Amino acid sequence: AENLLLDSDMNIKIADFGFSNEFTVGNKLDTFCGSPPYAAPELFQGKKYDGPEVDVWSLGVILYTLVSGSLPFDGQNLKELRERVLRGKYRIPFYMSTDCENLLKKLLVLNPIKRGSLEQIMKDRWMNVGHEEEELKPYTEPEPDFNDTKRIDIMVTMGFSREEIHESLVNQKYDEVMATYLLLGRKPPEVSDT
């Protein structure tokens, strides 16, 4: 949970990609990635795995940690942590709601095939408190606006050429040129007079 950040719009940003994987549907992964306390059992077993199922386990660890203030599986050393994860037993704090507990029971499942899918999790009762009557719609990225001449003009005054700006944006390079363009499009934070 230490690598989850909130931006000014309360969107979660994941930080610290020291070691990560890129997942393609149908291709199993075999690299141990992430922090051991958040790692799924199949990682400790050295098995090939599907990315989403491992991520669902990690989401369970994160949820448990955010709600309870402690990790569901912990140990004095890696061997002890591994044993606890592979047992899959964790304590439910007395103050945790039944709905939250039920969601955790979908996330922290030893067998990855029986673990909840991302769609099941998004439809879970606890996830939708206050939005029960709304239909679940998939998130779609808004189409980026790469034709903001005001931003491009500012970037030219900063030393970027129009050609490199165009090339970076059209090819979505996610380099310093595109980062500058995107940052210039952000609304400035409100400043208080206190």
TrEMBL record:
<keyword id="KW-0547">Nucleotide-binding</keyword>
<dbReference type="GO" id="GO:0005524">
    <property type="term" value="F:ATP binding"/>
</dbReference>
<keyword id="KW-0966">Cell projection</keyword>
<dbReference type="GO" id="GO:0005737">
    <property type="term" value="C:cytoplasm"/>
</dbReference>
<dbReference type="Pfam" id="PF00069">
    <property type="entry name" value="Pkinase"/>
</dbReference>
<dbReference type="GO" id="GO:0042995">
    <property type="term" value="C:cell projection"/>
</dbReference>
<keyword id="KW-0808">Transferase</keyword>
<dbReference type="InterPro" id="IPR015940">
    <property type="entry name" value="UBA"/>
</dbReference>
<dbReference type="InterPro" id="IPR000719">
    <property type="entry name" value="Prot_kinase_dom"/>
</dbReference>
<keyword id="KW-0418">Kinase</keyword>
<dbReference type="GO" id="GO:0004674">
    <property type="term" value="F:protein serine/threonine kinase activity"/>
</dbReference>
<protein>
    <recommendedName>
        <fullName>non-specific serine/threonine protein kinase</fullName>
        <ecNumber>2.7.11.1</ecNumber>
    </recommendedName>
</protein>
<feature type="domain" description="Protein kinase">
    <location>
        <begin position="1"/>
        <end position="127"/>
    </location>
</feature>
<dbReference type="GO" id="GO:0035556">
    <property type="term" value="P:intracellular signal transduction"/>
</dbReference>
<keyword id="KW-0723">Serine/threonine-protein kinase</keyword>
<dbReference type="InterPro" id="IPR011009">
    <property type="entry name" value="Kinase-like_dom_sf"/>
</dbReference>
<dbReference type="Pfam" id="PF00627">
    <property type="entry name" value="UBA"/>
</dbReference>
<feature type="domain" description="UBA">
    <location>
        <begin position="145"/>
        <end position="185"/>
    </location>
</feature>
<keyword id="KW-0067">ATP-binding</keyword>
<comment type="similarity">
    <text>Belongs to the protein kinase superfamily. CAMK Ser/Thr protein kinase family. Smok subfamily.</text>
</comment>
